[in-house]
Amino acid sequence: MKVYVNGEFFDKENAKISVFDKGFLYGDGVFEGIRAYDGKIFKLNEHVNRMFDGAKVIMLEPPITKEEAKEIIIETFRKSDLRDAYIRPILSRGIGDLGLDPKKAKKASFVVIVDKLEMYPREIYEKGMSVITATTARARHNTLPPSVKSLNYLNNILAKIEASNYGVPEAIMLNTEGFVAECTGDNIFLVKNGVLITPPEEAGILMGITRATVIEIARKHNIPVQEKLFPRTDLYIADEVFLTGTGAEVVPVVEIDKRQIGNGKRGELTTFILNEYRKLTQLEGVAVK
Ligand code: PMP
């Protein structure tokens, strides 16, 4: 395993960053989670674009260009001995003083970690997952913008703690109006009468790259898709529910707040989308090794 830190490659034990880095002090920065399958990096452009968009929103000047970021990500993956990997690029504000002012940090840091990650046990993809709705609301657009994948994940972590307290792996987060937004680290879809429905950007979500891929798969196979606001009650009475994310891929949900979803088994459309997604991950991507 290799870690890139500001121009150099280190082993896991020696990959370090200053305690004065504002990413550590204040969660001031942005990051990505990318997967590589069988030597190919999936959706590299999309992830790097989202990271640079996030950096622009928080006025963080990356120390490298987009092209350089891609090359460094590729190189860090190449140096690892993994063919299937989870890649974590991080842009943090860099070293400054103990105050909040980002201008005190003269140069942003760029870090790339390549590791393995199994988000959920294998059997969950067959049997489905049980989730709860968190009492912690998803941040509003005028607080901590949900569309920016910032290093400040406490909003999501508070909901994750609720899930963990209830003994389930994931929690659904509503926005402050009570509409379904997303999960702590995944987007959410429901299936009703053959139609795929997922919350729109205004619900307060990260615009997931897996979400976009699933929408593309559905459109290609003439499965109707709607992006619209819905309350959590629509989830309880859905035929199927599934989550999407780079780490998690496509996860069937069979129980929400103790209500069985559909027939309590992984749904037909969920199975189709899961299989098509897995096919794509094997076919597409930037070939590195
Ligand atoms: N929402 C949140 C809050 C996330 O952290 C993630 C994971 N990056 C997602 C959704 C899914 O996004 P993607 O499909 O791009 O991984």
Describe the structure.
It is a single chain. The chain has 289 residues and is α+β, with helices and mostly antiparallel strands. Helix content is 28%, strand content 27%. It has eight helices and 17 strands. The strands form two sheets. Strands 8, 9, 10, 11, 12, 13, 14, 15 and 16 form a nine-stranded mixed sheet that branches. Strands 1, 2, 3, 4, 5, 6, 7 and 17 form an eight-stranded antiparallel sheet that branches. The two termini are 15 Å apart. The model has no long low-confidence stretch (mean pLDDT 97). The structure holds 4'-deoxy-4'-aminopyridoxal-5'-phosphate.
Summarize the structure.
By secondary structure, this protein is an alpha+beta fold. The chain has helices at residues 22-26, 44-57, 66-79, 124-127, 154-165, 209-220, 232-236, 268-283; strands at 2-5, 8-11, 29-31, 34-37, 40-41, 85-92, 109-115, 129-133, 170-174, 180-183, 187-192, 195-198, 225-227, 240-245, 249-256, 259-260, 286-287.
What descriptive keywords fit this protein?
eight-stranded antiparallel sheet, 289 residues, globular, nine-stranded mixed sheet
Outline the fold blueprint.
Blueprint: E1 2-5, E2 8-11, H1 22-26, E3 29-31, E4 34-37, E5 40-41, H2 44-57, H3 66-79, E6 85-92, E7 109-115, H4 124-127, E8 129-133, H5 154-165, E9 170-174, E10 180-183, E11 187-192, E12 195-198, H6 209-220, E13 225-227, H7 232-236, E14 240-245, E15 249-256, E16 259-260, H8 268-283, E17 286-287
Parallel strand pairs: 8-9, 8-15, 12-13
Antiparallel strand pairs: 1-2, 1-7, 3-6, 4-5, 4-6, 5-17, 6-7, 9-10, 11-12, 11-14, 14-15, 15-16
Bound molecules: 4'-deoxy-4'-aminopyridoxal-5'-phosphate.
